Amino acid sequence: MVEIRGLRGMNRRDFLKLSGAGLAGAALLGVAGCGSGETIGGGQQGGGGGGEGGSTFTFGRGADSVGLDPINVTDGESLIVTRQIFDGLLDYAPGTTDVVPALATEVPEPEEGGRVYTFTLREGVTFHDGEPLNAEAVKFNYDRWRDTSNEFHAGGGSQTADFSYYTMFGGFDDESVIESVEAVDETTVRFNLTEPQGRS
Hints:
Blueprint: E1 2-5, H1 12-19, H2 21-24, E2 39-40, E3 56-59, H3 76-85, E4 90-92, E5 99-101, E6 116-120, H4 135-146, E7 178-185, E8 188-193
Parallel strand pairs: 2-3
Antiparallel strand pairs: 1-3, 4-5, 6-8, 7-8
GO molecular function: peptide transmembrane transporter activity
Family: Belongs to the bacterial solute-binding protein 5 family.
Keywords: Signal, Transport
C-alpha cells in the first residue's frame, strides 16, 4: 500500500498522472477514492484522520516493485514508482507523442545529418541525495549502460531485466548506436551516434 498525505480533491485523471499508469501502460488493480478530511482505504480499518489536518489517499498495488533502477526493470509496478522518482532528458507531452524537454531545456536539433545531438541541461536540479545534475552525471549513466566493461554495468538482480531497455539503442559496446557521450561543460552534454537518428 502507498499512502500520500495531504492530498485533497484528486480526480481520476490526476491520480493516473500521479501513478504514472498512463505512461507505463500498467493497469491498477485497486483504486480508492479520495475525500477531504478523512482516510479512505478501500475498507481498511484504522488510520485516523490523515494527520496534520490533511486527508490520506491510499491505494493498493498489484505487487511490490522488482527494482528501482529504471534501466533494469520492465514490470509495470516498478515503472509506476520509477516514473515518479526519475526524470529523463526529454519526455512526452501529456496525452500525445510530442517530444518535450524535461531535464533538458529544449529538444535539440539534429546536427551532422542526425548523428549528433547536443543537450543543454536545466540548472538547479539535484538528485535525491543533493548532488547536482550535470553533464558528467548524464555521461556516467549512458556509459554504464552502454559499456559492458564499465564497473557499474551491473544488472538489478534475478528478477530484473538487466538493461533490456537499452536495446533501443541497438545493443551494448560496439553494437550501440551511441558511439560516445561527451560532457562539453557543466550543463552541456553531446551524444555522438554511429548512424543518423532522425526526429519527425
